[in-house]
């Protein structure tokens, strides 16, 4: 069962439970998934579905950052949206898993002690492997801590 069917059934359950906020978040997610599928003109892969979910989470976080502190209604709505969307997001890698991937990339590139000048070369190989599985800023932070 793909995410579209899963989200649709969860949305129906939220409607029956009269949980309007959850239904609205799931309705938005369902719309984004369907639009992505229409634009792609093919069935969505798991990677495509995860991309859509992560994009919506990122948008909500950006809205949260730009919201003035006195607009508690918007802050609460964004936090709730993020909480619901994270149920459908892929499990993100932690620092230990990222370090493991970085070490394998360093081994492939034959780099024993990474220097700041090697960063571009490392990131070029590293980012496609962790895309959608790890937060880019965390990857950058972990890699930066390895430089001598």
The gist of it:
This protein is mostly helical and 148 residues long. 73% of the residues lie in helices and 0% in strands.
List keywords for this structure.
148 residues, mainly alpha, globular
Mean pLDDT: 85
Oligomer: single chain
The total beta strand count reads 0
Question: Uncertain spans, ≥5 residues at pLDDT below 50?
Answer: none
Summarize the biggest pleated sheet: none
- The Cα radius of gyration reads 19 Å
Number of helices: 7
Residues in helices, as a percent range = over 70%
Q: How much strand?
A: under 5%
One letter per element, helices H and strands E, the order comes to HHHHHHH
Tell me the structural class.
mainly alpha
C-alpha termini separation? 47 Å
Rough shape?
globular
């Amino acid at each position: 069962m793909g995410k579209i069917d899963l989200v649709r059934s969860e949305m129906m359950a939220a409607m029956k439970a009269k949980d309007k906020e959850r239904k609205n978040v799931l309705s938005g997610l369902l719309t984004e998934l369907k639009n992505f599928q229409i634009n792609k003109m093919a069935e969505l892969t798991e990677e495509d579905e995860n991309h859509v979910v992560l994009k919506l989470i990122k948008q909500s976080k950006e809205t949260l950052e730009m919201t003035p502190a006195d607009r508690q209604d918007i802050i609460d709505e964004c936090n709730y949206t993020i909480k619901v969307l994270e149920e459908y997001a892929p499990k993100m890698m932690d620092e230990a898993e990222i370090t493991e991937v970085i070490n394998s990339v360093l081994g492939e590139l034959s780099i024993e002690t990474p220097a700041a000048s090697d960063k571009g070369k490392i990131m070029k190989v590293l980012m496609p492997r962790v895309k959608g599985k790890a937060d880019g800023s965390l990857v950058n932070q972990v890699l930066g801590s390895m430089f001598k």
